[in-house]
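Working notes for the structural subgroup meeting. M.R. asked for a predicted model of this chain before we commit to crystallization trials. I am recording the input and output together here so anyone reviewing the notebook later can reproduce the run.

Input as submitted:
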Amino acid sequence: MDVAYTHSTIAFGGPMLFAAGLLASAAGNARRRRQAEALGAQQWRFQGNNRTMLTNHRVMAFASDRWVTWTHQAVVELWPAPQNFTFTLVFNGTDPLRLTGPGAPWFSVLLAFQLYGPAFLAERSEFQSLGGTPAPSPGHGRAVEGKRERGT
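Returned structure, recorded in token form:
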């Protein structure tokens, strides 16, 4: 994030008061600069419990009293880490998104399936740790006919 801060200098009076004013201004400017650098440093934003939804077009999270969205069209990479209950999305033109929590593994499965299809899930070892059987590729399923009996 780009952060601006105000640099100011206030000094007046005799030599001692003038020097004290310059020192106080320098200390205030240094504090404001450190705060701005801390806010501008690379870091994950919107930390906390945020309501998150997945649609067929975007990921939406309610954070900082507003809905923030990330479109699927801008996704360039998906880094699943279900064993750590997290996954990261890298986007073209915007900052990455990391989602964590107990629902993150299955959220990443749904998103990976939606973005890349079942072959991606079968290829990635991260998803195999979730158990179950991999999804069949399109056209490779089989139909099983069964009989149902009616009770009397």
